[in-house]
Specification:
The structure is a single chain. With 290 residues, this protein is mostly helical. 73% of the residues lie in helices and 1% in strands. Helix 1 packs antiparallel against helix 3. The longest helix has 29 residues.
């Protein structure tokens, strides 16, 4: 459990650094167009900042897979949601954003919730966990449908660019959650040999990741950067935590006190992230996407 939490923390740091690099590159790249996916991808990767962010994201993904193999999915995702602490510090100190008192209060609340989860996490190290195939199918299909629906809604053009960016950020997060749930299943399937990872869930993880890639990049081009990243993180974590509890039967706690404490901790993590919307850059100008 402890090793899984350490890997999850490292993944959270890398993920948020990657998001900030990718945002800096995405706003310099040509607009992402759904009708021209290859051209859009080439345009993004021609930006050195985006390419650097993508490389960091790949490394963070590897740490994430390692964390999923060593700790329950819901615990890993809760730790990753606490990564918004890293986002706030990095965005303000190194990327030119400014966080107000409300945003820093969110950082403190999220950090406290994360600490409670880490302290109580050892209670589950010896628990044997299984998964429900029926729940896996239902959750994956439902969450995937939600993500694609949000992308469709954002394409209607009835909302402004900032709102469209936030919708795409949520859609990307939901689809990242689909991938995370599939990856957790695949880490368990590895116990049956390499052939265990060759399945429809590998395809589900790849399809969700590709859609999330484009939705996230376009969202970063349109919406306020830190808000889009925060919304993506919250949506991904909510989807994956739900998958951990419903699909993999991750325990909420052992005994009334542990259950209450962990429920409060999960709520604090989510509430803390909700208190960190849309910090603004000091050099923002109207109409500029950040």
């Amino acid at each position: 459990m402890t090793a899984g939490l350490v890997l999850a923390l490292a993944s959270a740091l890398g993920t948020n650094v990657a998001f900030l690099f990718k945002q800096r590159g995405a706003v310099l790249a040509p607009p992402v167009r759904g009708r021209h996916p290859l051209r859009s991808a080439v345009g993004l990767f021609r930006s050195r900042w985006f390419l650097l962010g993508w490389a960091v994201a790949v490394a963070a993904w590897g740490l994430h897979v390692g964390a999923l193999a060593l700790a329950p999915l819901s615990v890993v995702q809760a730790v990753l949601s606490g990564g918004l602490v890293f986002l706030g510090v990095l965005a303000e100190r190194y990327f030119g954003f400014h966080l107000g008192r409300r945003q820093w209060a969110g950082v403190i609340v999220t950090a406290f919730g994360l600490a409670v989860i880490a302290i109580t996490g050892g209670q589950h190290s010896s628990a044997v966990r299984h998964y429900s195939l029926a729940a896996l199918i239902a959750v994956e299909c439902g969450v995937f449908a939600l993500g694609t629906a949000l992308i469709g809604i954002s394409m209607h053009g009835r909302v402004g660019p900032a709102a469209e960016g936030l919708l795409l950020g949520v859609a990307a997060g939901v689809l990242f959650g689909v991938s995370d749930i599939a990856l957790k299943y695949l880490t368990q399937a590895l116990s049956g040999g390499v052939s265990g990872v060759i399945s429809e869930w590998t395809l589900a993880a790849l399809a969700a990741s590709v859609l999330a890639f484009y939705a996230s990049a376009r969202g970063l081009q349109l919406g306020p950067a830190v808000a889009v990243i925060a919304y993506t993180s919250v949506a991904a974590n909510l989807a994956a935590i739900m998958g951990g509890v419903l699909v993999f039967r991750d325990p909420i706690g052992i005994g009334p006190l542990a259950i209450v404490g962990r429920v409060i901790a999960f709520c604090l993590v989510i509430a803390g992230t909700a208190m960190m919307p849309a910090p603004s850059r000091a050099d923002d100008t109207p109409g500029r996407s950040t």
